[in-house]
Design goal:
alpha/beta; 14 strands; Rossmann fold; 4-stranded antiparallel beta sheet
């Protein structure tokens, strides 16, 4: 599966700063010090309705991570999956009486278009669950050999008790985990499971549903968590720098994935930091496909909204914050974009050297994009009220905003 084209990232003078970021597993800030190649895995979409503002906010957060790393002169090895077979996709295809493969391809193509318009840097590897199945099957078989998996009516489950570190990603108690498992795709009440929290690794073929040859597992399809584990281990290996996604993925998805990988490899941890973006609401409720309260990037684009304004609307909120999308949020972003573009359109202006360092410092401190925006606002206001004589300044600001914030002025 192919990703989307990369926009050019301007090189800035000087050196970027190492990133301190909030790690869900420790509950505090950690300083990331990758080697020459920083490794990041971000969980992708289930392509039955793409791309709403919640998606955009999440991928914007991890785009900033990449830009901070690139500014430190590192390379970035970024991997993202597409869950192109799963219950929600099959249910939507059945509801709309369309082929599930065609639906997945259509929505994945739209997602690529949205990511391109928003200037999100693409992953080096963009992998669908279906194409990963040949690598998933051996992992499930290996977990079974290790005694960490068991069969129940043809389905194969992972035993969470096989991982001594289980629970250390989300730091939730068993009662909270059970509630979230039921809400987020698990089946804690299924009779016969060794532990209610045990997640499915391989679902035996169901009538009328797609299935694949699973070798000794029989025909079926993979569970959700093992999909990402197979892709991450194949392309990044253990101990990669950041596992990312929305805050609703901390449990069960990232918790279970970490346990799968740790049992398979005997190494700990799967990722050095588990980083989670906040949720975006509309009309007082979390924006979600199940609720249908979605604002789509593609619809905004069709309505003539500049993608740079959409990106500024996302950047105006700290990535870990839960916030609400409103018409005013978009209007404020459009006004800010207009002020910035007017400021850099002049032939000279106030020196921007300090501004570049302010943006770098803000982003290096847990991706504080609102503080970075405020710094650019101050420069633009100074340009408007006092002007300046530095002929290089407008270009420096344009390149810094592009390189570090992904906004083309």
């Amino acid at each position: 599966m192919h990703a989307w084209p990369a926009s050019e990232v301007p090189a800035l003078p000087g050196q970027g700063r190492d990133l301190r970021i909030h790690d869900t597993a420790t509950g505090g800030l950690v300083t990331l010090d990758p080697g020459p190649v920083a490794r990041i895995y971000v969980c992708g979409i289930t392509p039955y309705d793409a791309t709403h503002m919640g998606h955009a906010a999440t991928y914007n957060a991890f785009d900033l991570v990449q830009r901070v790393w690139l500014d430190t002169k590192r390379q970035v090895h970024y991997v993202q999956n597409v869950t192109d077979v799963d219950d929600p996709l099959l249910e939507r295809a059945q509801r709309d009486d369309v082929d599930w493969v065609a639906l997945a391809e259509k929505e994945t193509a739209l997602f690529r278009e949205d990511m391109t318009a928003l200037r999100m840097l693409p992953p080096r590897h963009y992998i669908g669950a279906v194409e990963a199945i040949p690598g998933i099957v051996p992992l499930v078989e290996r977990l079974r050999e290790l005694g960490a998996a068991y069969e129940l009516d043809g389905d194969v489950y992972f035993s969470v008790e096989s991982d001594p570190h289980f629970g250390q990603v989300s730091r939730l108690d068993a009662a909270a985990m059970r509630l979230l498992s039921a809400e987020r795709g698990g089946d804690p009440d299924r009779p016969g499971k060794k532990n209610p929290l045990d997640p499915m690794l391989w679902m035996a073929a169901r009538e009328g549903e797609p299935s694949w040859d699973g070798g000794s597992l029989g025909r079926g399809r993979p569970g959700w968590h093992i999909e990402c584990v197979a892709i991450a281990l194949d392309h990044l290996g253990m101990g990669f720098d950041v596992q990312g996604g929305g805050s609703d993925l901390a449990f069960p998805h990232h918790e279970m994935g970490a346990s799968h990988a740790q049992v398979l490899t005997g190494e700990f941890p799967m990722a050095k930091a588990y980083v989670h973006a906040g949720m975006v609401a509309l009309h007082g409720e979390k924006m979600s496909k199940s609720k249908g309260n979605l604002v789509f990037v593609s619809q905004l684009r069709r309505d003539g909204v500049d993608p740079a304004a959409i990106r500024l609307a996302l950047l105006a909120h700290h990535y870990r914050a839960d916030w609400e999308w409103t018409d005013q949020v978009l209007a404020d972003a459009q006004a800010r974009l207009g002020r910035w573009r007017a400021a850099v359109s002049r032939p000279d202006g106030p020196s921007a050297d300090a501004l570049v360092e302010e943006i770098r410092a803000a982003l290096a401190t847990d991706l504080d994009a609102p503080a970075a925006l405020a710094a650019v606002d101050r420069w633009a206001e100074l340009q408007d009220t006092q002007g300046g004589t530095d002929t290089a300044a407008p270009g420096v600001v344009s390149r810094a905003v592009d390189a570090l914030l992904g906004v083309a002025l």
